[in-house]
Design brief:
Shape: globular
Structural class: alpha+beta
Number of domains: 1
Strand order of the largest sheet: 1-2-4-3
Radius of gyration: 14 Å
Strand content: 5-15%
Largest sheet: 4 strands, mixed
Bound molecules: zinc ion
């Protein structure tokens, strides 16, 4: 079995993050994540963030730089909230189903996360 590495950076949610994006449980970041690195290779990009439960897995970017990118951070926080709303395994199944049916861009979870980058969902 593949094993995900645990978070190596604890994240404090800043006060300017709106309430609807605040997770119920503490979240962390895993830098240099093999999962994110594989996704980056598949997507053909350098910088990737992938959320699994309450951990944001990063590749190609430091946690400091990621956290300074407010829109990106809000996007991934929205995915954390989606995990909280759906449950870990159900969310992954629904997310993959959405991607198969609608593609990445029209995946309803991605549509919602893109809205969260700048405004309310
Ligand atoms: Zn996303």
């Amino acid at each position: 079995m593949f094993r995900l590495n645990p978070a190596n950076v604890q994240v404090n949610i800043p006060d300017d993050i709106p309430g609807f994006l605040k997770p119920r449980k503490p979240i962390g970041i895993r830098e240099h994540s093999w999962l994110a690195r594989m996704a980056a290779a598949k997507l053909g990009t350098e910088r990737v963030a992938i959320v699994i439960g309450h951990t944001i897995h990063l590749s190609g970017i430091s946690s400091d730089d990621f956290l300074q990118n407010k829109a990106w951070f809000r996007h991934e926080l929205c995915h954390v909230k989606q995990y909280e709303a759906n449950g870990l395994v159900p969310f992954i199944v629904r997310y993959l189903w959405e991607s198969l049916r609608n593609g990445y861009w029209q995946n309803r979870f991605e549509v919602e996360a893109r809205k969260a980058e700048t405004g309310e969902v």
